[in-house]
Specification:
Helix content is about 80%, strand content about 0%. By secondary structure, the chain is an all-alpha fold.
């Protein structure tokens, strides 16, 4: 079970960070359509 938890964190952490950072710093591919338009 521990291995599964580590894998889940390893997979979700970079995704979550990318999305959160994309909102303020660099626009992520998925957020450019929503937040990127406002920033121009």
């Amino acid at each position: 079970m521990r291995a599964g938890v580590d894998e889940a964190l390893a997979r979700w952490r970079p995704i979550a960070l990318s999305e959160l950072e994309g909102l303020d710093d660099a626009p992520a591919p998925g957020w450019t359509l929503g937040s990127g338009t406002e920033r121009g």
